Amino acid sequence: MVMLVAAAVCPHPPLIVPEVAAGAAVELDGLRAACGEAIARLDAARPDLLAVVGGGPASREYPAGGVGSLRPYGVDVTVSLGDPPADAPALPLSLTVGAWLLHRVGWSGPARAYAVGSGSPVKDCVRLGAHLAGLAGRVALLVLGDGSARRDDSSPGWPHAQAVAFDDTVARALAEADAGALERLDAALAEELMAAGRAAWQVLAGAARDAGLRGDLLAYHAPYGVAYFVAAWT
Q1: Is-above-0.70 flag for pTM?
Q2: Domain extent at residue 16
């Protein structure tokens, strides 16, 4: 029998890496701790395979690992998934942060990385999730995604009247392990709200169908005008 046995949802702001945040690193200590807890629950589920899923410019798999760098954000931090070859492809930001989070907790199990294009149709995201859930007998997902970046005057984008309500919907879905609610997120609205996690969350929705998981929302904050969620589904 193949099934999804656990999932962790984490954000992927570069500032979650202390070297990037520098003097402001302490501001996200709680978020880092919540991510560590969510990933610890993945480990406790004893998966045969961990699939790391995050948004990217295009959908693709990194079967032989990949290497991510935070040099574009001013620090010489490089991380990898697995033992990549010398010509390993570069990971997008979401998967780079995912690899950093896994290294931070000492993850040593098998992991494969998947980028999902930010504009991918809902049905394609759901189909990918169902595919990932069937890759091994016990599959876990680490899903990287940020919420709206148009919440208030501190946000990167101009404030949008629907941003907070959208994020609240995501938070409820993650708290309740409601795959259907994630699948019903409006892709066009998510793009308008600069919600980078939409496609990855809908991959989770496809993977979690009929899995019978329970949700626990460990964090929901917007310290810089962008919604960050941490959740564990077990």
Answers
A1: yes
A2: 3-233
What are the distances in angstroms from CA 48 to CA 10, 64, 100, 128, 217? Answer: 21, 17, 21, 18, 24
Q: What is the dihedral of CA 17, 35, 208, 60, to 10 degrees?
A: 10
Number of domains in the chain: 1
pLDDT in tens, 15-72: 999 999 887 778 899 999 999 999 999 999 999 999 999 999 999 998 767 889 999 9
Pairing status of strand 49-56 against strand 138-144: parallel
Asked if 38 and 232 count as a contact pair (C-beta separation under 8 A), the reply is yes
The encoded tokens of residue 92 equal 């997008």
- Cβ count near 161 (within 10 Å): 7
C-alpha R_g of the chain: 16
E strands along the chain, which residues?
3-10, 49-56, 60-62, 66-69, 78-81, 111-117, 138-144, 215-221, 228-233
